[in-house]
Specification:
By secondary structure, the protein is of the alpha/beta class. It is built from 5 helices and 6 strands, in the order βαβαβαααβββ. It has one domain (7-130): Nucleotidyltransferase, domain 5 (2-Layer Sandwich). The two termini are 12 Å apart.
Length: 133
Amino acid sequence: MAGEEAMIVAGIGCRRGAPSDDIVSLIFAALSNFGIAHEDLIAIATETLKAEEQGLANAARFLSVPLVLCPLSDLGRVTDRIITHSLRVQAIKGVPSIAEASALVAAGHNARLLGARIVANNITCAIAIGEGS
């Protein structure tokens, strides 16, 4: 990456009404799994249809990072790099994992998942690292 800083993104999948405290806790757990400080997180990403979810907006505000909204068409372009395959999400959204795909899309060029998504309280979180756009 020649002097550029890595882009670390938390991808989130959740049902409507997910509380921001639960989202933040899961992000912290996922980052901790990979030995990453929460200060190194540059964004939270999810699908565009979650734009009105206050829990996601509040989590991003709490962590002082932007909430990146990814169209389903962009998520579909990274399915070959997704680790976890949810039959339910595939049937409803057309992609195997919102969290993993969102993280990959938002992390940008040469993005890769650090591991499979984690799950708690009907929320999924995946961490990706990339070079940005």
